[in-house]
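Students often ask why we bother encoding 3D structure as a string. The short answer is that it lets us treat folding as translation between two languages. Here is a chain of 160 residues written in the first language.
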Amino acid sequence: MNIFEVAKTLESQTEAYYRKQSTQQYSDGVKGIFAMLADEEARHLQMVVDLEEELISEGLDNFRDGKCMTNALHMVSREHVFGGSVVSVYDFALELEKAGVEVYEKLMDEVYDANRIDLLSFLRNEEKRHIELLTNLMDMARKPEEWVESPEFSHIGEKY
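And here it is in the second language, the structure alphabet:
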């Protein structure tokens, strides 16, 4: 499996994961976010396919072995079963996006054309944007679980 195959597999699996999550029993807003992420992953997949086809048509088909992408390969093959917590869903999605960043950074070493490096940089930055979005969603979802009122600022027992 070469590095382009790893990238295509990761994008395809991430899209499928987001599509599945967009049909789960979350709020409409969360479903919409997962649907948007799935659409973006589908576009990323097409960009990777197009770039690979361009390189092959130019006779540049000796791509790096993708076995070095252990994190990405592990994420694609990992079984993901969650106990209903949206935080665990976001956490797994976050891991997928981090694997995507790793893949695009390795792919940038495969090409030497500035336009192609810009494309891969764009894709890497898209994955980083997804990481930021998912991190913010995780923070919001965790707030009710983590919030504890400090006794120092509590008004319990005070007469108003």
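Translate back mentally: The chain has one domain: 3-141. Keep this in mind for the problem set.
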